[in-house]
Amino acid sequence: MREELLKQSILLFQQKGFSETSIQDIVDTINVTKGSFYYHYKSKESLLMDIQEQYIDDLLNREEAILEKNETCRERLIQIVQLIIHDIKTQGPNGRIYFREMRNLSPENAKIIRGKREKFRLNIEQLLVEGIEAGEFRKELHPKMIVFAILGVTNWSYSWFNPNGQISVEELAVMFTDFILHGVLQEI
Question: CATH top-level class for 1-41?
Answer without folding.
Answer: mainly alpha
